[in-house]
Amino acid sequence: PMPTESPIATPTPPSGPPADLVADYTPRCGIQEVYAREMCGNTCVSNADCAPGEYCWGTHPNYCSDPNFTPLGYIGSSASISNIYYRCGKSEVDARTFCKTQCTWSTDCVEPGESCFAVQQNFCGSPTSASRRTLRANVKKD
Fold first, then answer.
1. Rounded to two decimals, what is the model's pTM?
2. Rg from Cα positions in the chain
3. 101, pLDDT greater than 90
4. How far is CA 131 from CA 55, 65, 73, 99, in A?
């Protein structure tokens, strides 16, 4: 017998992030550099700009200043340094920020355009107040 209805098309999964994030090195407040960067601390020029017990740190590259990035929201007292030192990503900051797949070699990375990067200290695996890092907008930046 012939079908009486058209088949329903399977949706195509997205091929990558909906926006290009721009990393920068803006100094930020925190008790250590990793806290300042991973928790997107307030921007600063000197320690006087920071809360008591925090310092103004020059940071490794991060997406904190990009308007399309929303930080994960690590819970400060529960955050701990990850013991995974290599992750897949399109760059080191991409691999670290989005807590991508652990790797030893670039051949371990299955996503197109990704390689294996040694990553800076991070809080991947620590408890968060959000399910994962997200983008604030689904628009591609110029």
1. 0.75
2. 19
3. yes
4. 28, 21, 9, 12
